[in-house]
Every structure is written in C-alpha cells, then in structure tokens.
C-alpha cells in the first residue's frame, strides 16, 4: 500500500529515502486521480517507494511543491525532485522513471 504522506513524515519518507520515490498529489473528488490511484497502489505492491499526498488534507505540501493541477506525480531521487508529471500517467512510464 502506498504511504500516506503528511508534512510531518514527508522529509523522512521522501527526501531522505535512498530509493527513488514517486509522490502522488491527489484528492478524493478528482476523477483522474481516482483512475490513477490503482496504478499507484500496483507500484507500491510491487515494492516501489510510493506515497500519496491528499491536497485537501495537506495544502501546505501542495503549496510547497507548487502543485496547481491534480493528479500531479513527482519523482524524487536523492532528496531532489527529478521529474514532474501532470495528469493521468500510464504505469509503464512510471516504472521507467523509478528504475531509470
């Protein structure tokens, strides 16, 4: 299961991770987000480091990373954002980013 990310655990779970981390900024009312969700969960079940940020519950994180549209997917490596994808993104694209 994808980790629920909050302002309190974001640094430890994402910025200090030794593995690449995919962060999904989403909301319960967002149709494309609900379609992206199962893909994110599949990646988590396959052992990839994946987290989800509910923008309604964590507006400060959404603002910090300048998330203007959802779903927004950010890939972090070595504590730095290396890729930003906005909109519904296929699983194979995400796997390539996490393994690349």
Instruction: Report the end-to-end length measured between terminal Cα atoms.
Output: 22 Å
Can you tell me the CATH architecture?
Answer: 3-Layer(aba) Sandwich
Main pleated-sheet profile: 5 strands, mixed
The CATH topology corresponds to Glutaredoxin
CATH homologous superfamily? Glutaredoxin
- Extended strand count: 5
Give me the side-by-side strand order of the main sheet.
1-3-2-4-5
The secondary-structure class comes to alpha/beta
Spatial shape: globular
The whole-angstrom Rg is 12 Å
Structure description:
The structure is a single chain. This protein is globular. It has helices at residues 10-15, 31-45, 59-64, 91-99, and strands at 3-4, 21-26, 49-54, 72-77, 80-86. The chain has a single domain, classed as Glutaredoxin (3-Layer(aba) Sandwich), CATH 3.40.30.10. It is an alpha/beta fold and 100 residues long. β2 (21-26), α2 (31-45) and β3 form a beta-alpha-beta unit. It starts with a strand and ends with a helix. The longest helix is centred in the middle third of the chain and has 15 residues, at 31-45. It has a 5-stranded mixed beta sheet with strand order 1-3-2-4-5.
